[in-house]
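Students often ask why we bother encoding 3D structure as a string. The short answer is that it lets us treat folding as translation between two languages. Here is a chain of 97 residues written in the first language.
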Amino acid sequence: MLKVLNKQKQAKIKFSIDVEIDLVHGELPSNQMIARESNKIANAYPGFKAYFICFYLPGMKLDAGAFATAHHNPKLKVNIQDFVLNNYPEYSKLLEE
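And here it is in the second language, the structure alphabet:
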């Protein structure tokens, strides 16, 4: 389940949204899961040329680095930025596993 933290629209040109995404059975969301959720968001808000989606884990600070980003411009590109988790001890331990 995703929780919307922030969203902005720019006249059918760009749609930006920050969402919170949960862990999956105690593990970090995968690249495929981020892509799937990103496609759902883009489909829910049709008509924009580009989509910029930032995925935060619960407790992460908004605008302080997202766990993952997805850009549809027009092709989908997902980037998991797990180095950001070094600032969150509760998540950095998942990087070691």
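Translate back mentally: The beta strands are 2-10, 14-21, 50-56, 68-72, 76-80. Keep this in mind for the problem set.
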